[in-house]
Amino acid sequence: MSRDDLSTERDVSAMSTVSNTTFTERPPDGPVTLTDSGSVSPSVISRWNPRELLLTMLFLAPAVAGLGAFVIFPLFQAVYLATMGSDILGNPTRFVGLQHFAELLTPDFGAVLLRTAGFTLIVVVAGVVLPMALAVPLSQRLPGMRVFRTLFTLPFAYSASAASVVWLLMLNPAMSPVNWLLQLAGVSAPGWTTDSGWALVTVAGVTVWMVSGFNLLVLAAGLAGLDEQVLEAARIDGATGVRNFTSIVLPMISPSLFFVIVTTTLTALQSLGQPQVMTDGGPNGATSTLVYSIFNQAFHNNNSNYGLASAQGLVLLIVGVLLAAVQFGVIERRVHYR
Amino acid sequence: MRTKLGLLACAVAAATAVTACSSAASSGTSPSAGDGLSAPAAGALDGKGETDITFWHAMTGTNGETLKKLTDQFNAANQGKIKVTLAFKNNYDDTLSAYKNALKGGELPDLLQVYDIGTQFMIDSKATVPAQSFIDVDKYDVSDIQPNIAGYYSIGGKLYSMPFNTSMPLLYINKDAFTKAGLDPNKPPTTLDEIKADAQKLTVKDASGNTTQYGFGASLYGWFLEQWTAVAGAQYCNPDNGRNGRATEANFASDNNVKLLNWWKDMVGSGLALKLDSDTKNGDSAFVAGKDAITLESTGSLGDFTKAGFQVGTGFYPKINASDAAGPIIGGASLWIVGKGKDDAHKRAAWEFVKFLETKDSQATWHTSTGYFPVSKGALDTAVDKQWVANKPQFQTAITQLQSTKVTTATQGCLFGVMPQVRKAAESAMQAAVLQGKDAKQALTDAAASLTQPIKDYNDSVK
Question: Compositionally biased, Basic and acidic residues: which spans (chain A) (predicted)?
Fold first, then answer.
């Protein structure tokens, strides 16, 4: 059972306790008598009290204003724009109905979605496994581990554009240090950004490098918080090595792991700087992900096709909601909260 | 009540010369009256005190510093009359985006710098004063402007914006590598066949079979495809490169360009050319590092190339066929004077500043400090410029190339409202053919076809 379910149950029981006590303390006349279900909270009693109402609205106002301005309004604006054609400045000028959505039913856009899925998969799998592989040895209490932990966490401080530029230099076809090392090892370097097969992997690789630092931090913290008693009990029971890791350690850090998976998925879905700076969506669209495509339609190359971009944005929203539903509905069931 | 408010709003709008209600309020009157898009007389600044104008530009590094220097010079000479404030807008794309947003409701600059491929869009934005209007009012002598450069920004014989920073494509060679390979370093290749023949001698492999120097290596930059097309004397878009009426169709899927991409594919496939993407920075560093011996780049890269550890030579932009007789198109950016919502003094002040930037002395400073091609013919005859060219004899190639290129619709270049998208699509086709091994004809045809709808949508929306 998930933490949410548990906490809800706890809240409900707490509430009923409160209402029960209220019942015994208050005289049985007044509005309470109207509801005899027994699980009504006391706030219902004063729900229409003007003073309370005013206070409630006052407290809600900042949150609603923020949510309205930055979430609800843009959402409706996107729906509106998605049904409009625009002039050369991007002003919505004519109603086009579902035309922009019809334009999405092409093999090209299908390829964009598929590419986004592939990109996200690479980033999430590598971006979680790699920091995990680093975090486990780093959690050993050995001298110098603090230094390594700090070093491995540093990529976290890079912005997408800065990281992309640095990696472009690292993989520059003329003087790439990476290619030089590969050549020393007798491997001929691939066309990192020119080979369509490699371009997506390269861009995903840079994203993995960027998310690894933060993920390492979270996973290392999870490992540091492990209960020594449980580990000792497991040792006494004879759990060692891989078995110890998969049956004891992994379930115990599963909340951190789940958090890392969710945030990395979102980061991967929203990546723009990496494909924009490193490949500009190329070669021939091979690294054009969903967000790059939205950016391309709305702002790139003097485009102002806000209609099509908004339609694609709504697709991104649906993809995000579906993924979140899967992650919270399926994966979180396996997460063990203490 | 509502109608009254509407009338009041229209009255206010009309009084402040905002065009918002003009269609309702002044239907039938001529569009030039009061739309603010014609040049004011020379006396517009008289008795106005100091007129402050803002100039949006996208010049970085040395270019930005030189622009600042010229602006300071102008401000000092016009103290109490005109003051130009520079506003840096990151890059050409951002400058144009900012302009678009300002048109939708914001503060417009008095003057802005727009890249070559934004020309048709700027005309269609209907908020600028054509340079021709000032030229006519002032009887300004345009004979000093290089005709090929003015040609790009002229449509129907009317100059819309004043050319400023101008560049041109050239062929660059590593002279040391040429000598080592037994080739004449003073005879750069001029055609595809010659590049291939030279590249065969220039490609060097080490003992283990790794290529240490490729014969050829150029970025798959969309601009280059426009240049090859122009050198062949062909139109990049129909009809007439959009120079006589609106272009309706991209025309780059020509047999010539198919031949070019097949050649390029073959060069990369047979190991004679370095595989590069469309990022010219990668192409530049490969050439400077000696990774390839022949490359294509704009005149703007000459300064960086001459700092490389070898002798650099230049040649005319190569031809696809030996019989191709036209020349390349100029690139760069030009200056647009904003008319919408501006009073006569501001328009006039912007024009005075533009005129200053176009003078032969300003252009000589600009050319020798930045490497951009001077817009003014006279600039090339100034002492400072002559000395600079003597130090950089490679630049003489660019001057000769420009002077030997006849102005035709082919060498004026293609105009589209969606030209940035067109360039990007052509670039994708180049990548598809050379990097992905797709059929060149198919790649170019698909790219041209993908543009049909955006071109039509754009043209329909400005009718």
Answer: 1-12
